[in-house]
Each structure stands twice: as C-alpha cells, then as structure tokens.
Amino acid sequence: MTADLTSTATFDFVAVLSQAAAAYRGQRNTRPSAEILVTALLQAEKAAKQQRLTYPFESLLGKWQLCFVTGTKKVREGGGIVLGKGLYVPKFIAIHVSFNATSEKDSGKGEIGNQVKFSPVLLKLTGPVQYLGKKNLLAFDFNYMVISLFGRAVYNRAIRSGKLQTEDFYNQPIAKLPFFAFFLVTEDFIAARGRGGGLAFWIRET
Asked: What's the pLDDT tens digit per position in 37-77?
C-alpha cells in the first residue's frame, strides 16, 4: 500500500513536519519544539506500520538536507535504548544525503552520498545502496571519500577496498550493514529510523 497523506489519521503529524520544514527554510518564523517534532515523527512511524505503507526507491532519489535528528541512550535498568530529546541541525553546518539509481534493470540498487560542509571544509562520502521496498529498508556502505578545502580537493580516494568493496556489498546480509528504515516519504521531506535507533528528518534540497 502506498501512502495517503491526506487522511485525517496522518494530518496532524504531517502538518507539524511541514511546519518544521518551512521554518527551517526560513519560510515561516515559528518552528515546532524538539519534543513536538519527535512526537510527530513517532506518530508517522506508527502510522506507517499500521497501514503497512511502502515507498518505491525512486521516491527517495535526489538530494536532501538533514533538518533534525535524535540520539539514543541506554537505560541502566533493563539495558534498553530510548530516544534522546532531539535537536535541529544548526544552520552553519550543512549536512546533505543524496540517493541516485545506478541500474535501470534493478531499481533497488544505487549510490548514496553523504556530505558535511562547515565553513570552507567539505567532507563527502559515497558508496553503494540496496533498497528493500517491502520493508522500506535502505542498506548502505561508504567506500569513497573526498575532502575539499575552499572548493579544492585535498583528499580524493577510495577507502577500504574501493570497487571490490562495492561488488562485495550486494552479497552482504542486511543485518551486517548500516541502514535507514524509512517510514515517511513525501515530495518535500523524508524521515527514517537508523540502525542505532535514532530518528532523522530531511527536507528536499531546493
């Protein structure tokens, strides 16, 4: 089943996330508090599970700016993991993730790019991805790094074993790879839970 974001069951959390996206872009003055945004993300995740929503890999393609993240912390008694309070990513640090398809025959295979820009320094990691549409699960790995200073690359090379690592990646069990479990995908923003349990909220780069 694909997402129907116009239903009354999803209206409240979609409105909160839309407000957060607009405020982060500077289109609105008031942004939801971290607590309210975490609640909205958890409601979105719950709705996705209840409605068994699925999203095609094509809906993730493009460049997305990280807007909000939560950490996790272990509980001493019982050893469980709970979400941290969460925070908006400061504007002076630009963090983007991008997804591209690399094969027309297999829409579940592609490439991920993750870059962090802080003043004149740019760090970018790239690598392969594998998407399991039935679970909205995107497994990935990084095998190439570029570091630029004032727009000029000062480090540009494969990490680990380069191309062989990419070929071997698709033979690895998903359980052994880092991944994002997406539970909300729209034209304007996406949200997922990482393997470590934290939540992330990205807005489309405009």
From this structure: 999 999 999 999 999 999 999 999 999 999 999 987 665 55
Q: How far apart are CA 133 and CA 56, in angstroms?
A: 6
Number of domains observed in the structure of the chain: 1
In a domain, 64, yes or no: yes
Residue 199: band (very low, low, confident or very high) from pLDDT cuts 50, 70, 90: very high
What CA–CA distance (Å, rounded) separates 64 from 83?
Answer: 23
Query: Where residue 185 sits, what CATH number does that domain have?
Result: 2.40.128.280
Compute the mean pLDDT over every residue in the chain, rounded to the nearest whole number. Answer: 88
